[in-house]
Amino acid sequence: MPGGTLFTVNGSFHIRNYGNGMYNPNALPKYRHTEMRDAQGSWTLGPVQRLPRGYHSNAVLMPDGRVMVTGDEAQQIANDPDIKDDMHGSIEIFEPWYLHVGDRPELNQVPVDPVRYHSAFSVDTRTPDKIAGAVLIAPSTVTHSTNSNQRHLKLRINSVNDTRLTLQTPPSAADAPPGWYMLFLVDDRGVPSVAKWVKLEPAQTS
Questions:
Q1: Which of 36, 107, 160, 193 is deepest in the core (most CB within 10 A)?
Q2: Strand partners, 162
Q3: 73 pLDDT more than 80
Q4: Which tens digit of pLDDT belongs to each residue from 102-123?
């Protein structure tokens, strides 16, 4: 998550059967709780998901800080067109606690052009007094319940001048492969701004 906490989601019981055993669309809630881990390593149970979600499930952090949850192992759920029964495929949206605690920090403008490794770049914010950190989070590439592109990078804040923050990019592609990243500003509670997209690229060579 933008503030550095961990969020786990998706679970099921007796789902992966390929038609050769029990299929339980109402798997016990203990198999499909959301959980959040704080900076001290303590896990807290969150709400129970509406459906069990197995091997082909997804959880995607969106730029507004919510998490979109989709997918399941039992394809009959995804393919059932009747939205009034308990077997239809659905998208669930998880709203973390930080969306319900008042004003969030703001990220108002980021560079349009790509930013280079091991260099400074500036962003604008109307809430400079609330900013305690800045992070880059790679967009999710989730399949088979695994996010192979998960990456959370804290950026150094070099300076704050009125509404302009100067941030330092990661040193090299070994720290963050080239491409697009969500940039979040975070306050001292761990509450993030809405993200804006920035693109990391190597320095141009002549």
A1: 193
A2: none
A3: no
A4: 999 999 999 999 999 999 999 9
